[in-house]
Recover the amino acids of this structure.
C-alpha cells in the first residue's frame, strides 16, 4: 500500500520522507490556503521532496477552464498529478487530461457510482473521502470496500486512494480492504508507529542493558 501525505507542510513531509514513508503527496485548496504560501511555489517545493505524484487541484468549475488550469499545473514539475472534482465537468476534463498522459486524481468521491465514472474516464486515482462520510454517520470504509470490489470486477486500473483519513484505525481498515493508497495527515502517519507496549518493552530492555555496563 502506498502512503501519501495529505499536507503542504514542508518540514512534516521532509521528516516522513527521510524515514522512507512518503510515496506521494496530496493537497487541496484548503490545505494550500492554510499554508499561507503561493500555490505554484509550494507545489514545486513539495515535488522536489518525492518522486511520487503530488496532487494539485484545479479551482475552475467548467471543463475547458479545468483543462487549461490542469495543463498549467503540469508545467510545475513532472510528478504533478492534476486533481479534479467529481462533477460532470471534472470527469470531462479528466478524460482529456488523462488522454494527454497527465496523471489525474478525481476527488470528493462519496459514492461507488461516482468512482465507477472516474474509472471510465481513465482517472489515475479516485479519492473517496472516509472521514467526511463518518462525520455524517455514514460508513466511509464501506465505500472503500465497494469501490475495491467494483474495480476488481471489471479490471479497472484506477487506483483507490483513500482520503479524509482521521485515525490509525482508518489506515488499518484501508489496508485490510485493499485500498491501493492512503493519504493521511503527517500526525496520523507518525502515530502508526506508536504502541504503549513498545515503549514499555524498550524502556525495560535499555534498563537491563545499562546494568551490564557494556557498550556496542
Ligand atoms: C484528499 O486528497 C483530501 O485532501 C483530504 O484527504 C481531505 O481530508 P479532510 O476531510 O480531513 O479535509
Amino acid at each position: 500500500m502506498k502512503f501519501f501525505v495529505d499536507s503542504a507542510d514542508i518540514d512534516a513531509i521532509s521528516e516522513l520522507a527521510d524515514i522512507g514513508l512518503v510515496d506521494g503527496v496530496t493537497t487541496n485548496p484548503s490545505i494550500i490556503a492554510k499554508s499561507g504560501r503561493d500555490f505554484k511555489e509550494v507545489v514545486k517545493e513539495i515535488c522536489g521532496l518525492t518522486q511520487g505524484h503530488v496532487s494539485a487541484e484545479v479551482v475552475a468549475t467548467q471543463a475547458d477552464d479545468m483543462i487549461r488550469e490542469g495543463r498549467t499545473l503540469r508545467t510545475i514539475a513532472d510528478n504533478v498529478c492534476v486533481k479534479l472534482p467529481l462533477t460532470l465537468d471534472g470527469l470531462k476534463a479528466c478524460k482529456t487530461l488523462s488522454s494527454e498522459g497527465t496523471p489525474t486524481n478525481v476527488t470528493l468521491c462519496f459514492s461507488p457510482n461516482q468512482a465507477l465514472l472516474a474509472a471510465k474516464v481513465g482517472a489515475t486515482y479516485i479519492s473517496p473521502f472516509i472521514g467526511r462520510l463518518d462525520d455524517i454517520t455514514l460508513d466511509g470504509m464501506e465505500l472503500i470496500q465497494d469501490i475495491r470490489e467494483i474495480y476488481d470486477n471489471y479490471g479497472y486500473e484506477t487506483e483507490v486512494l483513500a482520503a479524509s483519513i482521521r485515525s490509525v484505525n482508518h489506515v488499518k481498515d484501508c489496508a485490510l480492504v485493499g485500498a491501493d493508497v492512503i493519504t493521511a495527515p503527517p500526525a496520523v502517519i507518525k502515530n502508526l508507529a506508536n504502541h504503549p507496549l513498545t515503549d514499555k518493552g524498550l524502556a525495560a530492555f535499555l534498563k537491563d542493558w545499562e546494568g551490564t555496563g557494556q557498550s556496542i
Q: What stands out?
A: The CA atoms of residues 119 and 135 lie 26 Å apart. The radius of gyration is 19 Å. Strands lie at 2-6, 24-26, 54-57, 80-85, 104-109, 125-128, 159-162, 181-184. DSSP finds eleven helices and eight strands in the chain.
